[in-house]
Amino acid sequence: MAILVTGGAGYIGSHIVDLLIRKGYETVVVDHLAAGHRQAVHPKAAFYEGDIRSQDFLNSVLSGERIEAVFHFAASSLVGESMKNPLHYYDNNVLGSLNLLKALDTHKVKQLVFSSTAAVYGEAKSQPIQEDAPLKPASPYGETKLAIERMLHWWAQASGARFVSLRYFNAAGAKASGGIGEDHQNETHLIPIILQAALGKRESVSIFGDDYPTKDGTCIRDYIHVEDLAEAHLLALRYLEAGGKSNVFNLGGSKGISVKEVIETAAEVTNRWFKVTIAPRRSGDPAELVASSEKARSLLNWQPKKTSIRQIVEDAWSWHRSHPDGYPKS
Ligand code: UDP
Predict the structure, then answer these.
(1) What distance in angstroms lies between residue 217's CA and the mean position of ligand 1's atoms?
(2) Average pLDDT of the residues in 52-71
(3) Ligand 1 atom nearest to 172, measured from its CA
(4) Confidence of residue 147 (pLDDT cuts 50, 70, 90)
(5) Main-chain dihedrals φ then ψ at residue 130, nearest 5 degrees
(6) Which residues form the NAD-dependent epimerase/dehydratase domain (predicted)?
(7) Tell me: the pLDDT tens digits for 309-327?
């Protein structure tokens, strides 16, 4: 029996595929390579290029493989882009997931781990955010992920399937031993943007707003190392394999770090000068997002190891330094 990973050529997906293979799981990846990279997929994984919005494509993969569980990453995942093009998010995320669940029903696959997001909370009233906090997404990205969580709930209830939804805070870093890392076509994430500036690949770093009601006026986020995130996915799979009921978990380092603090850490780690400017706020950005990950720690026995922002930036820096232009273009 094998594990299916949708979006397994993407940044987070490729780290989970790498871990699954190292743990001895037979792994099948589907990805349409709109944002993912073929070179990011572990060579021992079976790879099918295609779009999960195609029922024929999914049926052909699921007919040829014996899938026991699915990690569902395939989605568009940028807050800013979703504000400008919400319908694309409904199409790719909601329609893609609906199509996937139909195919899973057809092939009687009943375990799924879903890649959700802290963006489902929107501007939370109190921090750190617990899983039962009000769900008020401030962007179409968060809204589509929440719609999928609700769909999973009713799907699981009707079909007897079980799912775990993992709401990540800010994934960052790269596999410390190298080979895979973050490479987006139009990079919008803070840490890679800073490191590209440190490499001289962009002129400057813009701080999106320094007038937020936070300690230094810049947005506060909770950064989590992608290797710790991968470990949590494996634990979620084992939880389902052991018969665990459908559940939702936050995944974060439980520490709030401001944009300015990330920039200062990156300046220290890289020991390079880069220009920093203050820009207007980016729409859809909540002032603060910090997780309470107590539930994942107690129920999944998750113990994140690389929780300091310095370690996260160091591992991201070794990826960026060794791959200044990302994955080789084939
Ligand atoms: N940010 C910034 N400048 C950039 C990119 C991001 O100031 O060039 C800020 C952004 O406004 C947010 C934080 O950095 O407060 C993290 O943004 P990112 O896009 O990395 O992740 P998100 O929190 O949107 O998932």
Answers:
(1) 14
(2) 98
(3) 20
(4) very high
(5) -100, 165
(6) 3-252
(7) 999 999 999 999 999 999 9
